[in-house]
Prior knowledge:
Low-confidence stretches: none
Distance between the termini: 93 Å
Number of strands: 11
Helix content: 25-40%
Order of helices and strands: HEEEEEEEEEEE
Amino acid sequence: MFPIDLGSIADWVGAIGGLLAVVASVLAWKSSDRINKRMLALEEKREADKRLLRVRGQAESVFAAGVTLPERDGAGRWGIYLFNGSDQPIFDIAIESRRLDNGSKNATCEIGLLPPGRYVMPADAKYHWGALVNLDRCREEVDLLVKGKGKGMITEMRFSDYRRRRWCLKEGVLQELSEEDD
Length: 182
């Protein structure tokens, strides 16, 4: 028989140490792979959120509210406050509203273009809606109707952003409209 050389204790310690190093590196690789997948998923979510913000950003900066205009009399005492907080105009605006005294539907207020800024569209007895007033250029007093029955004066606002995407703001919820919805 051939004699078997089992080696010294140092050889055994070195071999076991090498084997443990291989096991540790495989475990570290697996662990880092899981961490990398989580980091990748987090980065993809951030990118999706950025894309959504780019798409919805302007639309989320626009709103309308009912107002009273204390300096005016008659039908012109009531109006619609329009705010475009973005740096681009919005287009093809249609605002549905209702009267506060009996809840009946007002005529649709249609505006072709609304630049950035604060505006009011007073009611008009003859033409339903008067001329758009730029509140950034005049000092007309405006009382927003944001409580009680007044908060329900504006029922729906539809518009196009500068990319020509159609949006609808209804009951505080903003949603993008498809071509079939519009």
